[in-house]
Specification:
With about 350 residues, this protein is an alpha/beta fold. It is built from 14 helices and ten strands. Bound molecules: zinc ion. Zinc ion (ZN) binds next to loops.
Length: about 350
């Protein structure tokens, strides 16, 4: 598929990503498709196959790179993956994200029997590490490879049940902190192992969203552990991680930047222009094309318009900008809409940028 005015890339995604992180010149604005589970259908696999089979996961990501010229690849522990390694049991629906079917901490006394899992043998950690090693071999010359981990707050919810954990924040804050301590220590232990590979590490903490908890709860229960995790990632020799939190995060942008994260990946519920004003001098911004309204339900023209809208608001972000979705790519998104987003990055994002093209 081609659009008039779309130029060929001059850099590989790996070269572009590296130059971007080092603040050096790049050929165009990077584009992140948040493809995730979407890749399953490219090889006729089920979504659950990606979470359970190293071979299928790697094959799906290679297919995604060939078909959509994805600009990154990697493995995610998944939102429940740290909790799983500690003792929660996950279910793997054929066409959906894994979910917790049995929580490890039903009573707080259960915490006495739980400990930091082995960084390789725990849960599906070895699955994640093997996928990453294979991707480094297969795609590592062309695209940056990353490992995604959940934030401690999200893991605590997946150990205890989110409803129970939310109640604990009010009724039993000391025990909530014990749970968060275990979640953070377990994540850091895995991150130290993952950091031995040539990858960047990213964090997603959806349960810590401003749409779920208050600003004060974020400050007391999510922020300190996220900051610790970010510091551990940097101490392990990795670049400053990307931090994704879903929903409305406007009230916590300052805290998100204070964690030390290098990049904030923002949901489409918030305004990139406002984020630029608030924290753009401290962090790269990534986002926030609408996954459902635009990608799934819209047309290629809608995708191009939404991409232009994002560029207009964030192209001049002081710390830089990456065109991306606000959250994961819906698995029923029409292929032409996915192509339309990468084409928009090529059409409007060439350096030197000419804002007249998209404003
Ligand atoms: Zn999200």
């Amino acid at each position: 598929m081609s659009i008039a005015g779309v130029k060929k890339d001059q850099m590989t995604a790996r070269e572009r990503g590296k130059a971007f992180m080092e603040g050096k010149p790049i050929d165009r604005i990077p584009c992140n498709l948040f493809m995730g589970d979407y890749a399953a259908k490219l090889i006729g696999a089920k979504v659950s196959d990606l979470h359970l089979s190293v071979e299928k996961n790697v094959a799906a990501q290679i297919a995604a790179h060939k078909i959509y010229e994805t600009e990154g690849a990697g493995a995610a522990v998944g939102l429940g993956g740290i909790a799983e390694a500690i003792g929660s049991k996950l279910g793997f629906p054929e066409q959906g994200a894994p979910y917790v079917r049995d929580f490890a901490v039903k009573e707080y006394a259960d915490l006495d029997n739980l400990s930091v899992p082995h960084p390789v043998k725990g849960g599906r950690f070895s699955h994640v590490l093997q996928i990453t090693e294979r991707l480094l071999e297969e795609l590592g010359d062309e695209v940056p490879i990353s490992i995604g981990v959940p934030g401690p707050f999200t893991t605590a919810g997946n150990l205890r049940g989110t409803q129970n954990f939310m109640r604990d924040l009010y009724k039993n804050p000391e025990l909530a902190h014990r749970l968060l301590r275990l979640a953070a220590d377990s994540t850091i232990s895995f991150v130290k192992e993952a950091a031995k590979l040539d990858v960047s590490i990213s964090i997603a903490d959806p349960t810590a969203s401003g749409s779920v908890i208050s600003e004060n709860q974020f400050k007391d229960f999510a922020f300190p552990y996220l900051k610790e995790l970010v510091e551990a990632i940097i101490k392990a020799g990795k670049s400053k991680p990307t931090l994704h939190i879903c929903g409305n995060t406007k009230k916590i942008w300052g805290y998100m930047a204070d964690t030390g994260a290098g990049m904030l990946s923002l949901d489409n519920q918030v305004d990139l222009g406002e984020a630029k004003q608030a924290v753009g001098d401290r962090v790269v911004l990534m986002g926030n094309v609408r996954p459902t309204d635009t990608m799934y339900l819209g047309t290629p023209a809608d995708v191009e318009a939404n991409a232009r809208e994002c560029l207009q608001k964030a192209y001049d972000n002081p710390r830089g900008y990456i065109l991306a979705l606000g959250c994961g790519l819906p698995i029923r998104t029409p292929p032409e809409n996915v192509h339309a987003l990468t084409n928009a990055a090529r059409k409007y994002g060439q350096y030197p940028l000419n804002p007249e093209n998209f404003i």
